[in-house]
Amino acid sequence: MKLCTQIERVEKTVDDFTVGPIDLDIELGTISALIGNNGAGKSTLIKMMMNLVKPDNGQLLHFGASVKSSDQWKQEVAYQPQSVLGCDLLTGKQLRDLMAPWYANWDQEMFMNLVKTFEIDLNKRFGKMSKGMQQKLNIVLALSKNTKLLILDEPTANMDIPSKQKLMDILVDWMERDERAIVIATHQVEDIKKLADYIVIMNDGKVIGKYEKEELVYRYKRYWFENGLGIEKIPGEIDRLNDRLLISNDVEQTDTFLKKNEIKIIQSEVLEVEEIITYMLMGR
Ligand SMILES: Nc1ncnc2c1ncn2[C@@H]1O[C@H](COP(=O)(O)OP(=O)(O)OP(=O)(O)O)[C@@H](O)[C@H]1O
C-alpha cells in the first residue's frame, strides 16, 4: 500500500509534558482512528502533522515531502481543528471565499451539496452559529478542499445524532471517490465502529499500538466456566468476575491453557469494540 504520511521519531515537549517519540505510518486507502484518554496527546500530534506545532525532534512527511519544506503538501492535506479562533465575525460564505482560492482542487459542487445536506446558513456569522453548526461548516470546508488526506480532530463531538450519521456516510463516500486517507481523533465509539480500519491508541504522549480493527476483535474473548477457576492467573487473562467469568486479550494462549488443564467452558464470545477499546485504554 502507498504511504501518505510518515511520522518518524517525532517528539515535542510543552511545559512538563512530552508527546513522543512517535513513529507512525498512514497508508492511502485507510481510515485510522486516533484514540486516547483526555490529555493523551492526540491534538498535539495532529497539530504537528499540520506543522502548527513544531516538533523538537524527528520528522514528518506527507507524500514524501517534509512538512517543514514548503507549503505544497497543504494542497493534499485538509484539517479540521477541534476549535477555530478568529472566525467569529465572518459568515460561512465569507469563510468559503477566503479559503477556496487557495485550493487548486476545491470542489464547489461538493461544497454546495454538503451545505444543503447539513442545512448550513451561509449568511450567518460563524460566531452566531451553534457549536454543532460550526463543526458542520468546518468539516464541509475541509472536505471541499478535495485533498488526498483528511485529518479530523473530534469532528462529531458537538453534533446531533442524525448529523453524526450523515457525516459518517459522507466520509465513507469521500473515501470511495479517490485513493485517499482519513485520520480521525475521536472519543465516539460509533465513529470507530463504523469508520476505522486501524485503531491507533495513544497514552501519556506515546502511541502504544496501531491495530487493525477487524483483527482486534479476535484477540479478545469472554469465557464462562462451569466451576470456579481456583487458579491465580491464566495466560492472557485481563479481567475476572466471580472466578467464573474471564476476559482474555490473548485467545490463543488462553485456549491452549484451558484445554491443557481440562477446564470446562460453558460459553465464550467475542467482545464489543467499545469494551476492547476500554480495556486497551486501561493498558490491558
Ligand atoms: N499550548 C499548550 N500549552 C501547554 N500545554 C499544552 C498545550 N497544548 C497541549 N498541552 C498539554 O499537552 C498534553 C496533551 O494535550 P492534547 O490536547 O494533545 O491531548 P488530547 O489527547 O488531544 O486530549 P483531549 O482528548 O482532551 O482533546 C496535555 O497535558 C495538555 O495540557
UniProtKB/TrEMBL annotation:
Specify the ABC transporter domain's residue ranges.
1-229
Question: What is an example of a Pfam family matching this protein?
Answer: ABC_tran
- Provide the GO MF annotations for this entry: ATP binding; ATP hydrolysis activity
The alphabetized UniProt keywords are:
ATP-binding, Nucleotide-binding, Transport
> Is Heme among the key words of this record?
no
Q: Can you name this protein?
A: ABC transporter domain-containing protein
Organism lineage: Bacteria, Bacillati, Bacillota, Bacilli, Bacillales
